[in-house]
Write a structure and sequence with these properties.
The complex is a heterodimer of chains A (213) and B (542). Chain A is α/β, with parallel strands linked by helices. Helix content of chain A is 31%, strand content 26%. Chain A folds into two domains: 1-74 and 152-213, P-loop containing nucleotide triphosphate hydrolases (Rossmann fold, 3-Layer(aba) Sandwich), CATH 3.40.50; 86-149. In chain A, strand 9 (201-206) and strand 10 form a beta hairpin. In chain A, helix 3 (106-118) crosses helix 4. The longest helix of chain B is centred in the C-terminal third of the chain and has 43 residues, at 401-443. Chain B starts with 6 loop residues before the first helix and ends in a 12-residue tail after the last helix. By secondary structure, chain B is mainly alpha-helical. Chain B folds into two domains: 1-31 and 312-542, MetI-like (MetI-like fold); 51-210 and 255-307, MetI-like fold (Orthogonal Bundle), CATH 1.10.3720. Chain B is built from 22 helices and no strands. In chain B, helix 2 runs antiparallel to helix 8, helix 14 (318-349) runs parallel beside helix 18 (401-443) and helix 17 crosses helix 18 (401-443). Chain B has helices at 7-31, 42-75, 82-91, 97-108, 113-122, 133-157, 161-169, 174-202, 206-211, 220-229, 234-255, 278-307, 311-316, 318-349, 364-375, 377-380, 383-396, 401-443, 447-476, 481-484, 492-501, 505-530. The chains are: A alpha/beta (213), B mainly alpha (542). The A-B interface holds A 12-13, 45, 48-51, 69-73, 75-77, 79, 81-83, 85-88, 92, 96-97, 100, 102, 128, 130, 148 and B 1-2, 356, 360, 435-436, 438-439, 441-446, 448-449, 452-454, 457, 533-535.
């Protein structure tokens, strides 16, 4: 279980204090709703380690993540843009960060084929990321989630800008992946329909405070 | 976090550069006679006045011509050969000043094309007007108006089409359109280029040295050179250097806020939705044609005269071969050093400007300014003064003069190229960090992986451009070499200057053509060799 307890953050240039508390079970999707600038993405930045909280804690089961650096936190993030390097192939993009050396491990390369089948992109292994559509690019980013096998998945409005049908397909894929791989998924969105479709629970940002709906 | 480690190399480079500047100040200060700062003789006053006067006039004319040219080019997108002209104008940044002077003398000199044509048609010669203030202004306008027009053209093209449509619907005249729509959009670029051009003209050396003619047209830089090289009056040189250094430092500090938007020199073929009246169109076409002739003819003159040179004789000269190899070697090493230092400084600086790094640190702005300033030292310390510092160091600490010359030239070349290198690389590196930092940190990529998969693919054409720029700057500079040049140690510009001084114009034309060919080839081909990928579209266009 992922526990976010009394996590507080104050921007230096604005005197607003943000406060977050929430829990997520493995295999569960929690949606965070709120208007632009309400502090939704700040929560993801705090969980990912891009921002440091002034107080509070983040724990995955018994493991305290609060003071770990970004690279040591067991998570994968999907952003709205720039999830892939356009000049690299799909395979290379998925394998990024799996190994510390430039040369890929043969076992990992073989694994990519199976993962691509899981996200419906089996024929695109050697395509350049720049040649894919927006939906396909986000599928590649999801394939990377499966490759990395980290227990926390953070989604920062990754399907904004996709057409309605692709968006639904992507949401369903996230649901499937979360359940099958027992992920703790947090999805930031401003679309209520997204929450209704896949979220187990919904939180909302109200006056800088995260409130359960 | 891991990005903090990038502070160390960049910080060390910055510390080294600032220490170097301090050492230079120190050596100039301790070497001077204590009384000289308190008294300024009439000769120094007149030098100072003329330096400021020619810089002011040159800036006024360059910016005025630059505005007229950019305005004409912006409104005449269909002008035949426009792209080629714009590309040529951008090459003015790297054209060796001595080549420009050589070309201008061939076209506008006493026996130049214009005078010969005038004599043939009207039996009238304009005489030697090129030597003196007139020549200095013409050469400065040649180099700086084209540079200004390139920057201003981008500002014109960035004006939203809707603003033109609105102005048209309100029945604006051409003048009202300029006043209310175009001028406000040009203002920040104008401040940038005006302050930069003034600094460049204030510290101009080669142009004044060759075209100044008499001592009454000397600037501080040329007077320093003459004091060291001809009069052996180090005390006078120091006095002038300290005055020059104080004023240029003040100018750099004063104009620091204006010099942000110089990097974006991207131009395109945007059609402004405003059909010009015939009379206005005629004016614009005339402006473009006249400036194109003014710009192209000296280059053409170098080619025409150069082709007629006896190249077998030039290549058989041992001093030419020595100068050629020295120039290429120094330019190569300088460009490599420039690229490395620019990367390290930009990498360190982005820690203080990119969100989620140290941008919210209370000292972030101060550190960012220190890092930026250390890369822009050249603007405050012109190369001749740097040369004087090295000259004094060489007298204090014994080592072969050739070694001091190489160190001085490499340092000057790198510092001269760094402001431009940083203005290209810094925004590009900042952009990659803004876009990919979160992804890279969350994927836990190593530094090598980050460089191979992210930084290099996105930066490579910028790196090629910076390398070419630094190479051309180094190859064409006639600054510090004027103090250290000798038969034992010579570069191509110094060799060309010697040829011009001894009236060996035919050989000079050949050497000028060789220099021009190398500069244009490197400037146009090298960035292409570094290649373009899909990542290219994310790069700053320069």
């Amino acid at each position: 279980m992922l526990n976010v307890t009394n996590l507080k953050y104050e921007y230096k240039n604005a005197a607003d204090l943000y406060e977050y508390s929430m829990t997520i079970q493995a295999g569960e999707i929690v949606a965070i709703l709120g208007q632009s600038g309400s502090g939704k993405s700040t929560l993801l930045d705090l969980i990912a380690g891009f921002l440091s909280a002034s107080s509070g804690s983040i724990k995955l089961d018994d493991r305290d993540l609060t003071n770990l650096s970004v690279e040591k936190r067991p998570l994968t993030i999907l952003f709205q843009n720039h999830n892939l390097f356009e000049h690299l192939t799909v395979q290379k993009n998925i394998l990024l960060g799996v190994s510390k050396v430039l040369k890929e491990n043969i076992e990992d390369v073989e694994k990519v084929q199976g993962i691509l089948a899981e996200v419906g992109l089996e024929k695109y292994e050697h395509s350049l990321a720049s040649t894919l559509s927006g939906g396909q690019q986000q599928r590649v980013a999801l394939a990377r989630v499966l490759m990395r096998r980290e227990p926390i998945l953070l989604l920062d409005e990754p399907f904004t800008g996709l057409d309605a049908q692709t968006r639904i397909q992507m949401l369903d894929l996230v649901k499937k992946i979360t359940i099958e791989h027992n992920l703790h998924t947090i999805m930031v969105t401003h679309e209520i329909q997204d929450c209704e479709r896949i979220a187990n629970r919904v939180y909302q940002m109200q006056d800088h405070l995260l409130v359960a709906q | 976090m891991r990005f903090k480690s990038s502070l160390i190399p960049g910080g060390l480079v910055s510390f080294f550069l600032l220490s170097f500047a301090f050492l230079l100040f120190f050596i100039l200060f301790i070497s001077q006679d204590q009384t000289i700062l308190t008294e300024l003789d009439p000769r120094v006053w007149s030098l100072l006045k003329f330096t400021l006067y020619q810089a002011f006039l040159s800036t006024l004319l360059s910016v005025g011509v630059g505005i007229a040219l950019a305005w004409s080019l912006a409104h005449q997108a269909a002008f035949k050969g426009r792209s080629l002209l714009v590309a040529l104008f951008s090459s003015s940044l790297v054209l060796p000043t001595l080549i420009v002077v050589f070309g201008l003398i061939t076209v506008l000199g006493r026996n130049g094309w214009v005078n010969q044509l005038s004599l043939y048609l009207f039996d009238y010669s304009f005489g030697a007007y090129l030597y003196g203030l007139g020549g200095i202004l013409i050469a400065h306008v040649y180099l700086n108006a084209s540079f200004a027009s390139r920057s201003l053209l981008h500002a014109f093209e960035s004006i939203p089409k809707e603003k033109y449509k609105l102005a048209k619907s309100l029945n604006f005249t051409t003048f009202q359109r300029f006043l209310y729509v175009e001028f406000p959009a040009l203002r920040s670029t104008l401040l940038s280029i005006t302050s930069t051009i003034f600094l460049l003209c204030f510290t101009s050396f080669a142009i004044v040295l060759v075209l100044g003619g008499s001592p009454s047209y000397n600037t501080l830089e040329v007077a320093i050179y003459e004091a060291v090289k001809l009069d052996f009056d180090i005390s006078m040189a120091l006095k002038l250097a300290l005055i020059q250094l104080s004023i240029s430092t003040l100018l750099v500090i004063f104009s620091a806020n204006f010099r942000d938007s110089l990097t974006n020199l991207k131009t395109s073929h945007i059609n402004i939705p405003w059909a010009e009246a015939k009379s206005v169109k005629r004016i614009q076409v005339t402006i473009i044609t006249l400036f194109a002739l003014f710009f192209v003819l000296p280059l053409l003159a170098i080619i025409v005269d150069g082709i007629g040179a006896d190249f077998s004789h030039i290549f058989s000269e041992a001093l030419f071969i020595k100068s050629f190899l020295t120039s290429i070697g120094l330019a190569t090493v300088s460009s490599i050093l420039t690229v490395i230092i620019a990367i390290l400084l930009s990498d360190a600086r982005r820690n203080f400007t990119v969100k989620h790094r140290l941008s919210e640190h209370k000292m972030a702005k101060v550190f960012s300014i220190i890092l930026a300033f250390s890369g822009n030292l050249y603007l405050a310390i012109p190369s001749l003064i740097m040369g004087l510092g090295f000259f004094l160091l060489s007298q204090r600490y014994e080592a072969p003069l050739v070694l001091w010359s190489i160190i001085a030239l490499l340092t000057a070349n790198v510092l001269m190229s760094l402001p431009f290198a940083l203005s290209v690389l810094s925004p590009a590196m900042q952009k990659t960090a803004q876009r990919y930092d979160k992804l890279i940190f969350s994927l836990n990529l190593t530094k090598l992986q980050r460089w191979v998969y992210c930084e290099y693919p996105y930066l490579k054409s910028s790196l090629g451009y910076v390398f070419a720029l630094a190479f051309c700057f180094s190859l064409g500079d006639l600054g510090i070499i004027a103090l250290f040049g000798s038969d034992d140690f010579s570069t191509l510009p110094w060799y060309l200057y010697q040829l011009m001084g001894s009236y060996r114009t035919e050989d000079g034309a050949g050497v000028a053509l060789i220099l021009l060919a190398i500069v244009l080839a490197v400037f146009t081909l090298l960035p292409k060799l570094f290649g373009g990928t899909d990542a290219k579209r994310n790069q700053p266009k320069v």
